[in-house]
Request: fold
Amino acid sequence: MNVLLKKRIIMYSLFLVLMLVISSFFIKEKAISVEVETKVETDINSLAISKDENGSIGFEENDFFKKYTINCTKDITDLEFNEEKDNLKIKLDKSQVLNINIKKGSKVNPSESNFNDDKNLYIINFKKLIMDENYVHVDFQNKKKILVFIKKKETPYKYKVVVDPGHGGVDAGAYVGKLLEKDLNLKIAKYMLDNLRYNGCNVVLTRDKDKELDKLVKTDLIKRSAIANDKKADLFVSIHINSNTVSVYNGVSTYYYDPSGFQKTERLKFAQTMQNEMLKSDDWKDMGEHRQELAVLKRSNMPSVLVECGFITNASDRDKLSKEATLVNFGLNISNGVLKYLAEGNISK
Ligand SMILES: [Zn+2]
Reply:
């Protein structure tokens, strides 16, 4: 082989290798850009927000929370969600979601709420604006709705309310068969939470599970009003169900007490407001407001009431109390009473 031919072959080979390197670089670049595009595409699946019933997700907000309502096609019995550092993620089977609208560019900023379309699942993401105080649960009134509460900022709530679900643990309170006062009280208290929080109240429960505060009833009661005093609550509400050896007694009543006339006007007014609101659902008999020296009321430093939500010993009242919807209504009405009393400017801030 002559020298010239050898040189040419080497030149051609070098050129070929160079072309191969360049072309493979382009192919690789293209592959990467496709991948990036697909990823971006998934990330901007924003949610279509609508206030009407047909919208996949309803949205409203106030100074404290952004509230989303996810409308589903069937009752959600096992809600799957996890809270991560920056997000709340809800996993839903596609068949569970009503009309999820995958239109791009909806009214809500996709960086605040969006979803990933993952085969049979939608993974709906809600961006947390602050670390804590965000929460998700199935709507108590309608199991086809999921409620998402995103707290907007660290700003403190306007008011503090201590809610006391009466009895608990070793102390069942009044009971008939398996229907225990302590369980009903706790459910009503929990049903009050959304309404109070969404409307600017920091709520403290004296118990959030089936437990007593002390084995000794007298100490247990002292501890309940002590929580309200320690937390410097603006209002204190103790939830109970009434009972009597005479089964004919029925209806709802509210108790208050003003030791030596302490906060006499405020306490009476608070009791009247609560009693009026309690009567707004389920056709309860009005048993009125009563001034009575009850342990939890006489020790509290702030206006306080003890509400008796019907008689467990009366067949008709017990029938109502056996229905979850009645307890949800009590939760809503009692919390509305608190909000109404606060809105009337009775607590100066
Ligand atoms: Zn009780």
About this structure: Residues 162 and 228 are 6 Å apart (CA to CA).
